[in-house]
Fold these 4 entries.
Entry 1:
Amino acid sequence: MKIRQGSLNEARIWKHLNEEVKLDAPLVLIFANRHLLEEDYIFSTMRHLFPNGHLVYASTSGEILGDQVSDGGLAYTAIEFENSTFKIVSENILNHEKNSIETGNILAQKIDKANLKHLFVIAEGSYINGSDLIKGLESVLPDEVAVTGGLCGDDARFEKTLCGYNSKAKAGEVIAIALYGESLEISFSNYGGWFAFGPERTITKSTGNILYELDDKPALDLYKTYLGDKAAELPQAALFYPLSVHSAEKEHPVVRTILNIDETDNAMILAGDVPEGSRVKLMMATVDGIVDGALEAAKAAVAKRESAAQLAILVSCVGRKLVMDQRSEEEVEEVIEIVGSQAAITGFYSYGELSPFANERSCELHNQTMTLTLISE
């Protein structure tokens, strides 16, 4: 595996690493601030850098490159597999009336299943129900194929997210990178580091990812009561206080971030499903707890590997970044300490993370986690 990396900072200064590495038609992961991706300049520059490259763009809530976390810039990682192959397909949820299951189903139908080893998905983060996207994908994929990835971000603005493959990034896109090859070793993990507090409540009315009532009371009213003065800062304030959701059908609770609120219906829109009957508690975190969570994720990802990772893709939640503020790089440093300095590190801060739980294959949508996908060949 041959890798080149580089970045563009807020001052519009490029930094290119490993320029001596010659690549033919690499997979190029481009994580960038949404405002940058709206500029034609970015697409033309990346195409000039990699004339034959397969360019995958994703808007972020922060970019990860090596041990650095940046805002307002761009980070790229170009990967040329030497013993493996990849294929990229895309679908737009806006062509399917924002139906996430249908979008995932059609996207998965485009993928060649023969000898498929892994699927890495980068999805827009504005319209998607991440839980339903996974349902659609896994209804078509072979059981043994795991899915990891993340939902695009837009800092803490929640205005719009952009994604694209070999074209200027746009709203609604969902991109799947299918990896093939017997020599590939891929491991993955996720961990949060948040803790629950306050009384446990039951979801008594919900539809998909829209939460209406807790204990037969308007969910948004209850949430605002807990937030107090911070309620005026919704939906951004919700990133500091996600929900732990434990449904009867799931062995593990999942964390759900509130992406938006609906004052008219007194409801909250979350990144993934919140089934009726689920038990819910508020969550919060400390910086040390989040950093420890990243450490645990890294330990789990390397635990059963036979070879050292050559590439590590980190997808962490925007809520974690807001809590850590100027200390965001600490969680990345913890990951590098465990994964090893031989691995090229890339990734982004997201509106949702896709990964199975430890020792499982079925994917889940997570919020407020650090998710790792480690690759070698």
Note: The domain at 195-284 is CATH 2.40.10 (Thrombin, subunit H).
Entry 2:
Amino acid sequence: MAVELTTEDKLEYNFFPNRSGYFQFRVKAANDAHIALSTAAAEVDPMYEIFIGGWGNSRSIIRKNRTKPDVAEASTPGILNDNEYRGFWIRFGNGSVAAGREGEGQPFVEWRDSENVIVEYVGVCTGWGASGNWIIEQAGSSPSAPPAMGGRGGFSSVCWVPASNGQVPPSSFAGGEDNGEQVYIVRSNFGGGVIPGKLVPSHNVAYVPWGGTENAVPEYEVLCDFNGSWLACNGANIPANAVPAGQSEDGEPLYVGRVVHDGNLTVGKVQPSHGCVYIPYGGQELGFPDYEILVQ
């Protein structure tokens, strides 16, 4: 769901709950579109700030705890425009903070912190002579609805359809194969998180990898109406256009990956902090550092 917002020239943040690890928006401003990543709906430490188009729309920076020196800086002349919307994404989690332009996979500014700050809220504001109009792709109120880049107008078109007991909704996205049978991409609430996994329809259940085990789940959500693709990936090098599909019990964003094992192409979860994809297979949770990741 997109939220439209106008911010005045006040440098006062408007906060939204967001634990997804991803934030996407469009903004129309002459300069100084500011984004805060905070542990509360307020300016409290620890907190990150990303200033896009600061210093007269010439530079973008990342700052921690509202203090100088800035921890990262990039030259970005003309990155904002007060007559047209410009799209951006912010990715955060496991000490990493990155910002990039809509439609581009590589960030224009990024930084890795030795401290792992658990971001709970994202704030936006404008200042230094600029007001702003924003279109914000709002994160879900629960971890079952993380956002993803892509789709109409560059915003999320990822669709998850509830199903159960082996049901395959129309337009389900097939991501693998098990003994000649198509395997579909699912996610399910399990172990305090929302875990990506696989659906083998003939088994009448879906499976998610968690706690070292292949866990059968009778109720799940299936990825539908999706036109993404797969990209070769290694370890924790998550591409910016990877599709967030859930989160761990600790709030870490999880992605969809797949790997060939035992002659089958099996879908599972990518957990960046572990540097691998985990697949549910043969009663076990198996990890692989080299895999394909779902992107959009």
Note: The two ends are 18 Å apart (CA to CA).
Entry 3:
Amino acid sequence: MAAAALTLPATGAIRSFGRAVPAPARPQHWRESLKYWAEEVDLVPDLGRDVGSLTWWRGLATCAALCFVTIKLAPDLAPLPGLAEAPMTAARYDEIRSQMITPLAYGSNSGRHMGPTELVSPLASTPERPMIQLFSSVGESGGLSRALARAGVSSADGREVMRTLGGEISPGSIDPGTRLDITLGRRPHPKAARPLDALSFRARLDLAVDLKRENGALTLHRTPIAVDDTPLRIRGVVSDSLYQAARAAGATPATAQAYLRVIAQQISLERIGAGDRFDIIIAHRRAADGMAEPGALLYGGLTTASGKKLDMLKWTHEGREQWFEASGVGKKRDGLAKPVEARRISSGFGMRFHPILGYSRMHQGVDFAAPTGTPIYAVTDGVVSYAGRHGGHGNFVKLAHSGGIGTGYAHMHSIAVYAGQRVRRGQVIGTVGSTGISTGPHLHYEVYKNGQTVNPLSVKFQQQSLLAGRELKAFRARLDTLKSQARGSGVAVVPADTVKAAEDRKVASR
């Protein structure tokens, strides 16, 4: 059978399994050509793939063409021509220099300065002021001599000042912050220091001094100043805070804090509220020229809104300043101090086998092991009732305390007190030793209650000073006198609204 020839249709259609597939249309316009290239042709192929293919070479050509166009369109980076400034003449330089800050730095006057001419002749030496008046102040460290040196006073003049003041005024007693008015005179030659011609300062609240150079030497002139020592009284009403109310009424921070500590001995500060009245009296010195010097707190009072009244006065009792309430009751002191600094207790209180006597017996104290010479301290205030040799105790000291309490210290190497002497808590009364019946250096410490020994480790009694008899009468007389004197000082009561307004001003100023 003869094979049939395949003939393509004239229309360009392709037969496929009995169906005709139309051929792709060719672009008839340039816009269609661009669209065709954009959609069908990859102009930016990946140059890392198919290296050497026609697509790769087309992408390389595109990259090179873009680089060429970028370089050709780059701006020119050559420098732009400009006009050079003409060289500055001497006259122009002098004109500019007269308006610079350099002349001011060298001490000349401000303003316009003209250059020198033939009518101006240079000076052989610059004239200086015949005197310089300045002031300095005494610092926290170094005292008067350091302040004079900082002000430019020569060391020779500084030593002369110290010699002149030495017999009358101690330079170390001058308070920090004291102002020194200094006058320095004309120096004999440019390399010499200016001599001290005059020095004035406030040596004390009641004394001003002037040192003046007369006939080549400094002469001291004193100016006494009258001082009023009347105590200052500050009273007011509490609004929100007792401390803020006291500060608003005129108390210094130190005075207000000291007052709070004293009041807290008798009443909790948390219980003090609005409407309570405070009363403060401090030592106060006021000079005739108005300068004042506040002192220590002497009295602290408080009256609560419910009517409870508290009066606290500083009083010297048994050689020590303490605060007492108006009834004569002082501050409570809890517990006992440690009698010796020891690392361990070598023997406790109770029955034990005696290492020397060879039998069991009651050990009526506590032994603290410590080297010979270690200080022994009084555990609390008391009076020495015995000091000396005491049988097996060796060197022995016994102290009597208030409330029927006593303490004993045995086997001491040395004794530093005597019978009848009053001692304070923490005072050294002797040193550790090994006298009497002892196997080595240690302190045997005993505590007595109504004459009977008790375990020292179980005793933590309270002590409270009490005034009685003539001392209580003198205490109350001093309290009345102080309040009457301070009342005459003219310090008015500060109302609550005044205190509140002062507090509001402080808050607003912040």
Note: The chain has a mean pLDDT of 77.
Entry 4:
Amino acid sequence: MAPDVAQFKWNHHLPIEDLPREAEVIAALGRQASALGVPQPWAEAFFRAQIEASKTAQNELFQGWDVFKRGQFPDAPDLVTVTRPKLDRLTDQLLHALAENWPVLSDPTRREDVLRAMHPMQAEDLSAKAVTQAIAPLGR
């Protein structure tokens, strides 16, 4: 979803980072995860990593577009009405997957299994650095 977010922000000259919104989202997701049985501090660190990974991917896209003096993206989806609802649905699925898999994710003897299962990821085509950031909490 990072390319869709980045295209909208590029078209509207918006900053990639929105710290107040990020803090709200992370806190809310931490509370939701806790209600599902995933420790809030772990969930907050996990979702913070997802946001950081998205910002990394967006920054990399912006850098490339800036170098090549990229114009507007005429087909960029609207951030509020299209992309965020998609992100909300994906995040809800992710929350439930984390809760369902918490026994494995929290087992230190299974860390290598978890990390191995996370590769290969399609997002590596976009940003290997972002993938590394996104899955880092799974190895802790």
Note: The radius of gyration is 16 Å.
